Amino acid sequence: MSDDTPTAIQSIEWRGDHVRIIDQTYLPKRKVYSDIRDMGRMWEAIKKLRIRGAPAIGIAAGYGFYMGIKELPESSFQSFWVEVQRVEEYLQSARPTAVNLEWVINRIKTTMQAHKDKPISKIKEIALETARTIHDEDKRICKKIGENGVKLVKKNSNILTHCNTGSLATGQYGTALSVIFHAHKAGKKVSVWVTETRPLMQGARLTAWELKQAEIPMHLITDSAAGLLMQRGEVDMVIVGADRVAPNGDTANKIGTYPLAVVAKENDIPFYVAIPLSTIDNNIDHGDDIEIEEREGEEITSFNGSQIAPKKTEAYNPAYDITPNKYITGFVTEKGIIEPPFDKNFEKLFDE
Ligand code: MRU
Predict the structure, then answer these.
(1) Structural domain of residue 335, as residue ranges?
(2) Could you give the C-alpha distances from 306 to 195, 298, 299, 300, in angstroms and in order?
(3) Which residue's alpha carbon is nearest to atom 6 within ligand 1?
(4) Which H/E stretch holds residue 148?
(5) Is a pLDDT exceeding 60 seen at residue 2?
(6) Which of 243, 250, 281, 321 is labelled catalytic?
(7) Is the pLDDT assigned to residue 1 strictly greater than 50?
(8) Does the active-site annotation cover 35?
């Protein structure tokens, strides 16, 4: 597979002693790689969306966590563990909505604790091994999500997607975009409506870039054009990713997802959410429990580095919204398609 095939893109790579990311803030103008060697730089890369998309944020945080704990003194496990919690808190402050960041760190911590009788140098190695395992697993899971979703896609259909959920947002393949890539590969002849995704333009910059490379027919639309297209019968299916899903199916995803879901229901258009099961947060009950990241107003008052609103305009910039479960037709996961009632059907999966 060539390096330019979208499903082969590696947004993040472990290179023996450091991480190499594609700095997504430069795309699509330039493909710039950035080498990250310490936790502070990783925090900055996540915060500034150099690496972004829930699964990719989790993978990056796993390596960032290792970089943070690698520097800690190797005295007693107890004092080491106090510092480990500080590293965790610091990284979690980068972006709060995507569950993947805390999920990955918790999983690494659980593995470390299971080996707490070993020398601290060994526990550090175990942390890195776990981060690498999670990264590899994500690639396999995203491939499976794509394969499982193909059966939902009708031949010759127009699919609408929001934000970027492709290889750039994950270890590889993507979530919602993995379904689209796999449907295209299976000869379904799909065409994609790509919302530009204000204010940071992940759709226009990143999804359009990935789809172009895959030679999948697409049109870029403004976020606000989606309603008209759905009303006119020009959308057969909506598929998006998610940053955190409550056990009842309420879903946090990029701002603008909720209105898409409401208009899809109004027009009898299936609305699917593609996720790895790790996106389900079993520590909460419903969508109201999800913290919504608020970003700088400057992301709205300026465009491409130039001020567009009058000087000193105050702006409010929530990065995500919550789509209530009643608007969601189903979840595409690595274990298959999950239909309502989501609470019962998710529970069954976790009991398996
Ligand atoms: O702010 P971003 O670009 O990190 O937001 C990304 C999204 O909202 C994606 O839809 C979500 O993370 C799912 S990615 C597979």
Answers:
(1) 148-351
(2) 22, 10, 10, 11
(3) 53
(4) helix 120-149
(5) no
(6) 243
(7) no
(8) no
Structure tokens at 223: 């976020």
Specify whether 189 is located in the same domain as 244: yes
Identify which of 11, 46, 163 to mutate to test ligand 1's pocket (most ligand atoms within 8 A of the CB): 163
Domain edge (last residue) among 143, 159, 194 = 143
Question: How distant is the alpha carbon of residue 350 from its chain centre?
Answer: 21
Residue 288 lies in a domain: yes
How far away, in angstroms, is 108 Cα from ligand 1 center? 22
| CATH number for the domain that contains residue 62 | 1.20.120.420
Are 303 and 200 contacting, i.e. CB atoms less than 8 angstroms apart?
no
- Ligand 1 atom showing the smallest separation from residue 293 Cα: 1
- Which pLDDT score is estimated for 5? 55
Which residues sit with their C-beta closer than 6 Å to ligand 1?
49, 52-55, 98, 163, 165, 169-170, 174-175, 202, 240-243, 253-254, 319
Sheet containing 330-333: order of strands: 218-221, 191-195, 158-161, 237-240, 271-274, 330-333, 336-338
User: Could you read off the pLDDT of 195-228 as tens digits, one per residue?
Assistant: 999 999 999 999 999 999 999 999 999 999 999 9
